[in-house]
Amino acid sequence: MTVVTDYTLDTTAKTITLGTDYTDIKLEEIDRIFNLTKGIEIYNSRTPRKHIALKNQAGMDISLTNGVISYIEDAGMDNTDLIQIIIGWIVLDGGTP
Question: For the segment 47-77, what is each residue's pLDDT rounded down to a tens digit?
Fold first, then answer.
């Protein structure tokens, strides 16, 4: 598990731009995104459609393109809020004994 500290939050565009060390991660590697300042869960891999389901939309609560996370949570967040991004690095070897 890795906690990302290099990011830029843009609440107007509803994006989180990750630092250069994280531009190659995949969506399925993101475990959780939480706004620590406001106590808001932006994304949880265990309930990846929580916010979308409330809006009756298809898809997931976040998308990821070239290190930029787009989210749909629309609670009153500010660009200066402290965000916790947890990336879980899980590698499966295909069951080799």
Answer: 767 655 555 555 678 899 999 999 988 778 9
CA 19 – CA 8 distance, rounded (Å): 8
**Do the beta carbons of residue 56 and residue 41 sit within 8 Å?**
no
Q: pTM for this one? A: 0.79
Rounded CA-CA distance 16/3 in Å is 14
Q: Are 42 and 34 in contact (CB under 8 A)?
A: yes
Closest CA to 16 of 56, 30, 2, 28: 30
pLDDT at 61: 83
